[in-house]
């Protein structure tokens, strides 16, 4: 008997009725997206568990993909049977024989949510333990450190047998916490910040500022490639590319050099906030880490944050660079971020930006300059691209949302 399904245990999940529904709905949708090329599978969702019915599809590949889906605590390839003892015994034995190797020890763990079932967990353990011991010569029990843990779940509707518990990615299903705009540069930090927000259920739309011809097509390609990595996790990512050249040139002409970085950041944040409003986002996400560079001192953040009340999520704020790099490597974005192409901020960055800018000063400088027309223009001229995960063909992009 082969595995016929994968049993999925939900991650951290509020017990409140409505949240639970959203959680399950989003998780189901996200799983469907990452498994969209397995045409035969069916997904069954209940309040307690989710099942992927394999219907002959390749379970191994599906297992690999599920490992990256947020909102899954753990999952197990499983066999379902009815409650006829003989059918249950057959399933237990054939499942066991598939993975048993000579010398292996075992134990049985039974969960019984069907309280009316005529055997209690000890009774089930004994019955099936004896069945395996009789049929597999030399098999030994080890309740502390077994090689194989046969899990039997007796639920109301059926019985499930499984032998492996595979760790899921944890977190909350992407989209169950609302939408945030990720300020995505070509650097190492911001993709990691996007990943960590997704882990807590935030759906990401990326916003990237570029300044042609000072930044090249190749640096734009970096951002497209980084977005694809994020899309592999969430199923799809919308990328807003904001033309920023005119604004940066005006800043360079009119704002005193040591304040130009502060103004640049303020305007980026302001424009991102406008794009957020138009796309029903609830937050802005950045890759800032406290004290990492001049724009990331508390004084700088205080002066920059002044342009909006929108919550700004900074998942990396307390992390050291090494910790961020480890995550970037795990995410497979590190090599892309490390490609040596120019970013709009590095091109225009002054030699000595103020590390302790004063909010009142930067407000004063900006009050003398008419940025509004250019800001409106930049928002209007923003190009929107939908980035699909690697496995999706171009003509399928429209049904990703
Ligand atoms: P990263 O490695 O993400 O580029 P960084 O250490 O280079 O970060 P900064 O250049 O100071 O730091 O940028 C801080 C944050 O501002 C970035 O993490 C990102 O969220 C945002 N940001 C910077 N440049 C851009 C850009 N060109 N487009 C969009 N967001 C940007
Ligand atoms: Mg950067």
TrEMBL record:
Keywords: ATP-binding, Cytoplasm, Nucleotide-binding, RNA-binding, Thiamine biosynthesis, Transferase, tRNA-binding. Its EC number is 2.8.1.4. Residues 60-165 form the THUMP domain. It comes from the Bacteria. It is found in: Cytoplasm. Gene3D superfamilies: 3.30.2130.30, HUPs. ATP binds at residues 183-184, 208-209, 265, 287, 296. Pathway: Cofactor biosynthesis; thiamine diphosphate biosynthesis. It is an enzyme of class 2 (transferase). CDD domains: PPase_ThiI (cd01712), THUMP_ThiI (cd11716). The keyword Lipid biosynthesis does not apply. InterPro entries: Rossmann-like_a/b/a_fold (IPR014729), ThiI_AANH (IPR020536), ThiI_fer (IPR054173), ThiI_N (IPR049961), THUMP_dom (IPR004114), THUMP_ThiI (IPR049962), tRNA_STrfase (IPR003720), tRNA_sulfurtransferase_ThiI (IPR050102). It catalyses: [ThiI sulfur-carrier protein]-S-sulfanyl-L-cysteine + a uridine in tRNA + 2 reduced [2Fe-2S]-[ferredoxin] + ATP + H(+) = [ThiI sulfur-carrier protein]-L-cysteine + a 4-thiouridine in tRNA + 2 oxidized [2Fe-2S]-[ferredoxin] + AMP + diphosphate; [ThiS sulfur-carrier protein]-C-terminal Gly-Gly-AMP + S-sulfanyl-L-cysteinyl-[cysteine desulfurase] + AH2 = [ThiS sulfur-carrier protein]-C-terminal-Gly-aminoethanethioate + L-cysteinyl-[cysteine desulfurase] + A + AMP + 2 H(+). Catalyzes the ATP-dependent transfer of a sulfur to tRNA to produce 4-thiouridine in position 8 of tRNAs, which functions as a near-UV photosensor. Also catalyzes the transfer of sulfur to the sulfur carrier protein ThiS, forming ThiS-thiocarboxylate. This is a step in the synthesis of thiazole, in the thiamine biosynthesis pathway. The sulfur is donated as persulfide by IscS. Belongs to the ThiI family. This is Probable tRNA sulfurtransferase. It comes from Cytobacillus eiseniae.
């Amino acid at each position: 008997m082969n595995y016929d399904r994968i049993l999925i245990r939900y991650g951290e999940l509020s017990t409140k009725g409505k949240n639970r529904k959203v959680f399950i709905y989003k998780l189901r949708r996200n799983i469907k997206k990452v498994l969209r090329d397995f045409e035969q599978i069916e997904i069954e969702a209940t309040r307690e568990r989710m099942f992927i019915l394999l219907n002959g599809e390749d379970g191994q590949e599906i297992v690999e993909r599920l490992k990256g889906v947020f909102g899954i605590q753990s999952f197990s390839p499983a066999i379902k049977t009815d409650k006829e003892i003989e059918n249950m015994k057959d399933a237990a034995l054939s499942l066991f024989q598939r993975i048993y190797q000579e010398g292996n020890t075992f134990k049985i763990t039974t969960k019984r949510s069907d309280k009316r079932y005529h055997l209690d967990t000890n009774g089930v353990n004994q019955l099936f333990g004896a069945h395996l011991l009789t049929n597999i010569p030399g098999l030994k029990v080890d309740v502390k450190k077994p090689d194989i843990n046969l899990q039997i779940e007796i639920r109301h509707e059926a019985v499930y047998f499984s032998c492996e518990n595979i760790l899921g990615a944890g977190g909350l299903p992407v989209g169950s916490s609302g939408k945030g705009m990720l300020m995505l540069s070509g650097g190492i930090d911001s993709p990691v910040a996007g990943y960590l927000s997704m882990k807590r259920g935030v759906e990401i739309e990326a916003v990237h500022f570029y300044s042609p011809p000072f930044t090249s097509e190749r640096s734009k390609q970096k951002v497209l490639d980084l977005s694809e990595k994020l899309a592999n996790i969430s199923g799809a990512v919308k990328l807003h590319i904001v033309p920023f050249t005119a604004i940066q040139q005006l800043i360079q002409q009119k704002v005193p050099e040591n304040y130009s970085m502060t103004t640049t950041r303020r305007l980026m944040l302001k424009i991102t906030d406008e794009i957020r409003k138009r796309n029903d986002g609830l937050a802005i996400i950045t890759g800032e880490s406290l004290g990492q560079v001049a724009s990331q001192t508390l004084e700088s953040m205080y002066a920059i944050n002044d342009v909006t009340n929108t919550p700004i999520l900074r998942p990396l704020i307390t992390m050291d660079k090494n910790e961020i790099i480890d995550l970037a490597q795990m995410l497979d974005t590190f090599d892309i971020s490390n490609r040596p192409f120019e970013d709009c901020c590095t091109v225009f960055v002054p030699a000595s930006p103020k590390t302790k800018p004063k909010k009142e000063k930067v407000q004063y400088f900006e009050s003398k300059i008419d940025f509004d027309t250019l800001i409106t223009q930049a928002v209007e001229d923003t190009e929107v691209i939908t980035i699909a995960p690697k496995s999706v063909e171009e003509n399928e992009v429209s049904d990703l949302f």
